[in-house]
Amino acid sequence: MHEKIRSLHLERKAILYVRQSSAHQVLHNRESSALQYAMRDRLTSLGWSRIDTIDDDLGRSAAGGVARAGFDRMVALSRQGRGGCGTEGIAVCPQ
């Protein structure tokens, strides 16, 4: 277990948010998708046993006010204390 990860973190499920901004990226940047999904293995190696992967927003840009249901769900779960989450290595978990 990593020194900054405590049992209180592991008690919540981990939420892995996977997204690419355009349909073109989804189709042509498969390595990026594979790397994002591989983060699940990293979470397991850090001690999480319950991991939800949210990938509802593949191909949806954050620009222009486009609704991103997956992102909204990730934030809601985190705010409710029902999961800890991160995106592209940036933790957005409540302490």
From TrEMBL:
- Protein name listed in UniProt: Recombinase family protein
Q: Which residues form the Resolvase/invertase-type recombinase catalytic domain?
A: 14-83
Gene3D superfamilies associated with the record: Resolvase, N-terminal catalytic domain
Q: Which organism is it from?
A: Sinorhizobium psoraleae
Taxonomy, superkingdom: Bacteria
